[in-house]
Design brief:
The chain is mostly helical and about 800 residues long. Among the domains are: about 110 residues, no CATH class; about 70 residues, no CATH class; about 100 residues, Serine Threonine Protein Phosphatase 5, Tetratricopeptide repeat; about 110 residues, Alpha Horseshoe (Serine Threonine Protein Phosphatase 5, Tetratricopeptide repeat). About 75% of the residues lie in helices and about 0% in strands. The protein contains 47 helices and no strands. The longest helix has 15 residues. The radius of gyration is 33 Å and the shape is globular. It starts with 9 loop residues before the first helix and ends in a 14-residue tail after the last helix.
Length: about 800
């Protein structure tokens, strides 16, 4: 290696050591032993052409063992000085992932040509040694060689993969390509497009694309993918349309990038059209393409269509199954996950680290902890436990299941922890509002581990939850010291933290001291103030925003109105409403709905009706739902039913929330038959599956009106697992109508699901005391004291 002054990286050395230690095993993976033996016996004395075929086979099969045997023959026959043979050996070692051996061959070559240098550069990029590829490129240019398109393209790919901004070397390479007339080469051009797009300079990528004389499918794909990387989904779809209009050839990568563009836009209609083009092109059996289609349908809540594609796939791979697992909703039944995974294990496909990461995320519920632990044992068996992403998902699952001690054990069991593991543990402690989250953050700092924006945000959340202002200010200082104070996500977390601690002046001061405060931060300040019960201060901040030339948006106004609704602030609601009319947001469905709700919560139903009449009325189902709920809360069931009939006449399809609102109106006036009929019409007339809120509304309606056994039958027969609120509704009905036996059963079920709920304890205590059962009453009191449960005190307020 004296003639070539680049040392092997640790990554390359580890790879070489691992491959040599698994020498025989790796060979068995690529091809049966008989192939290498046959070539070994037939390789008698010959010329370099005799070695071409076995060397090409070793390269294509990525068979390190066969390649080393051919290398031995090259040396034995005296071709070690032949440049052509040495170049082929470099290529073979690079393809087999043993770049270190390729570098040895390169270092021992008496004569190197342009191909030799280019193979080392492209091999370094292929093996993830991006810095090395740049160093080799510079060595090559210093040696007086003129780089070809493959060398330039590989160097540009290395710059892109390193994730840095466009640096001087990248610009020099671009200028060199312009100088020698290689900017129009498709390989160099597509590499330039990828570079500028990944760095977010899409305008530069567009200019490169326009200046190219010829665009092959790789260049078009780079342009479509570049738009997707920059979040410009519409431009990606438009580029696909231009390709189709001009009759350009489209391949799998084209359609996969276009489908990502549909996801960026959130427009499934374009996705369906692309699906049609794929079917027409007769390439719908491509596994990677079907995987992308399934992902598109899953992320647009079209689970049935995605499963249809999955069921008709001719060839599935691990990505196919991972896509299906990732497409399952978080509240999916453990039985469904277990059944699907069992079917997966019956195939010959083995799960990978992403499979277990996704499965752990699906088990983030206390009822699915047992299933998650079974997946954990399989992760151990397959050797994925120590993988960073798997460990992060495992810590997340255990934390969300309430097993924070097990999450800590899992964290401590990871030998090579990354920052994501630390973030998950801090977030897990935040779920139980434990000061341990701050201790973990301090431990991370002592070990010198570099924190990221997520770490600081989690630490700030821990400060606000534990109300530790002193540590919060220290973390603020660290954020400023390490240059994160201008990061939007962290700034929002700081503002929220100060507001939650009641330090609104500090939050406002921090925002004003920023060099650049955008509308997102103003929205965070105003929304957080309103959410924390400070609507007056939120309005003051809104006025400050207007003074500096900013204009409120619908989210700010909606947040303030929601705060006014919670506090029943009539005067402030009127003030904000006048501003809404002035700025023209009174026809916005989100803002108008908040206005109606704020007036209704105060009791001014007439103003709510006027606001509804001045809005878009029957053009938006959310507005109608809000008005129906306002009528329901005021016992105006006739008006609520009239509005529901007008919705149907306007051909406006009701939603599940519509039925919750109208059934609530029936509940307030005891119209059991009408409420039950409305519940049935959801499925019979509109083909909608009832949601938990719909079942909860029906059970509450039956319970409050004395149909207790019917309510219990609904709970036991519904296709959903019961939740605490639905048992509490039945418990309330039992308390109203004096059904102690059924009430005791409901209370026990409620305590199993929510041991901290005071309603079940109070009901049992009252039943036992009225029956003179002092021993059981004492036991209930002891349980309340052990678990720290206290009866919630009622309160009320008025605005003066």
């Amino acid at each position: 290696m004296k003639s070539f002054g680049i040392s092997l990286s640790l990554k390359s050395k580890r790879s070489l050591s691992l491959i040599r230690s698994l020498h025989g095993h790796q060979y068995q993976i690529y091809r049966p032993k008989s192939h290498s033996q046959s070539y070994h016996h037939h390789l008698a004395v010959g010329d370099t052409a005799t070695l071409d075929e076995p060397l090409a086979i070793a390269t294509n099969w990525k068979s390190y063992l066969l390649g080393t045997q051919v290398h031995g023959r090259v040396f034995k026959w005296g071709f070690s000085n032949d440049t052509f043979s040495q170049n082929n050996l470099i290529k073979m070692y690079s393809e087999c992932g043993v770049l270190s051996d390729g570098l040895k061959v390169f270092g021992e070559m008496p004569k190197r040509n342009l191909v030799s240098w280019t193979l080392i550069i492209s091999g370094a990029v292929r093996n993830g040694e991006f810095e090395m590829s740049l160093e080799v490129y510079l060595e090559m240019t210093r040696a007086g060689l003129l780089p070809n398109e493959f060398a330039l393209g590989s160097v540009l790919k290395a710059s892109t993969s390193m994730g840095n901004d466009v640096d001087r070397l990248s610009l020099c390479v671009h200028c060199f390509a312009l100088k020698v007339g290689m900017e129009s080469n498709s390989f160099v051009g597509s590499s330039l497009l990828n570079l500028y797009a990944k760095c977010g300079i899409i305008e530069a990528a567009e200019r490169v694309f326009e200046d190219m004389d010829y665009h092959d499918v790789g260049c078009w794909n780079a342009m479509v993918g570049g738009y997707v990387q920059c979040g410009l989904g519409f431009e990606a779809i438009r580029t696909l349309s231009l390709m189709k209009r001009d009759g350009k050839l489209m391949d799998n990568i084209t359609f996969i990038n276009a489908l990502k563009g549909c996801l960026a836009m959130g427009d499934l209609e374009f996705g369906r059209q692309i699906h049609g083009i794929i079917v027409k092109s007769k390439i719908e059996q491509s596994t990677s393409l079907v995987n992308a289609l399934m992902d598109t349908y899953f992320k647009n809540a079209k689970k049935g269509t995605a499963f249809k594609l999955f069921n008709v796939m001719q060839k599935r791979d691990a990505v196919s199954w991972n896509t299906v697992f990732a497409g399952l909703s978080p509240d999916v039944e453990a039985r469904e996950v277990a059944t699907l995974f069992s079917n997966f294990m019956l195939t010959k496909i083995k799960p990978n680290h992403l499979t277990f990461s996704i499965l752990f995320r699906l088990c983030s519920d206390i009822h699915q902890l047992n299933l998650g632990l079974q997946f954990l044992s399989l992760a151990f068996q397959f050797g994925f436990y120590g993988e960073a992403h798997v460990a992060s998902s495992l810590i997340n699952m255990l934390s969300r299941c309430g097993a924070i001690k097990m999450a800590r054990l899992a964290f401590d069991g990871v030998h090579f922890k990354n920052i994501y593991n630390w973030n998950e543990l801090i977030s897990g402690y935040n779920l139980i509002c434990d000061t341990e989250a701050l201790k973990v953050f301090c431990q991370l700092r002592r070990l010198g581990i570099e924190a990221n924006e997520c770490t600081f945000s989690c630490a700030l959340e821990a400060c606000s939850k534990t109300e530790n202002l002193r540590v919060g200010r220290q973390i603020h200082g660290i954020i400023v010291k390490y240059g994160f104070s201008s990061h939007g996500y962290i700034c929002s977390s700081l503002v929220k933290g100060y507001v939650k601690l009641g330090l609104l002046a500090d939050a406002f001061k921090f925002l004003c001291e920023l060099e650049k405060s955008d509308m997102v931060l103003w929205s965070t300040l105003i929304s957080a103030s309103a959410h924390q019960g400070f609507p007056s201060e939120a309005i003051k901040f809104l006025n400050c925003l207007k003074e500096v030339g900013g204009e409120p948006d619908e989210f700010m106004l909606g947040s303030i109105l929601n705060g006014c609704a919670v506090n029943a602030s009539h005067h402030q609601t009127k003030s904000v409403h006048s501003l809404i009319i002035k700025t023209g947001y009174d026809t916005n469905a989100f803002v108008a709905s908040a206005v109606i709700d704020a007036y209704a919560k105060y009791g001014d139903i007439e103003s709510a009706r006027i606001a509804f009449d001045h809005s878009s009325k029957y053009n938006d189902i959310v507005l109608c739902n809000t008005m129906i709920m306002a009528y329901a809360n005021h016992g105006m069931v006739v008006e609520a039913m009239e509005l529901f009939e007008k919705i149907k006449l306007a051909n406006l399809k009701p939603s599940q929330a519509t039925f919750v609102s109208i059934m609530s109106a029936c509940n307030h006036t005891g119209l059991v038959d009408q409420g039950h009929a409305l519940f049935k019409s959801m499925t019979l007339d509109y083909g909608m599956e009832p949601l938990p809120d719909n079942y909860g509304c029906l059970v509450d309606l039956l319970s409050r009106n004395g149909y207790l056994q019917d309510a219990k039958d609904i709970i036991e027969q519904m296709p959903l697992k019961p939740w605490p609120a639905i048992w509490r509704s039945l418990l309330t009905g039992c308390r109203i109508h004096g059904d102690r036996e059924l009430g005791e059963q409901a209370a026990r079920e409620l305590l199993q699901l929510a041991p901290e709920n005071d309603a079940a304890y109070v009901f049992l205590l009252r039943v036992y005391l009225e029956d003179g059962n002092w021993d059981d009453a004492a036991k209930v009191r002891e349980q309340m004291m052990e678990r720290g449960v206290q009866k919630s005190s009622g309160f009320s307020w008025i605005e003066i």
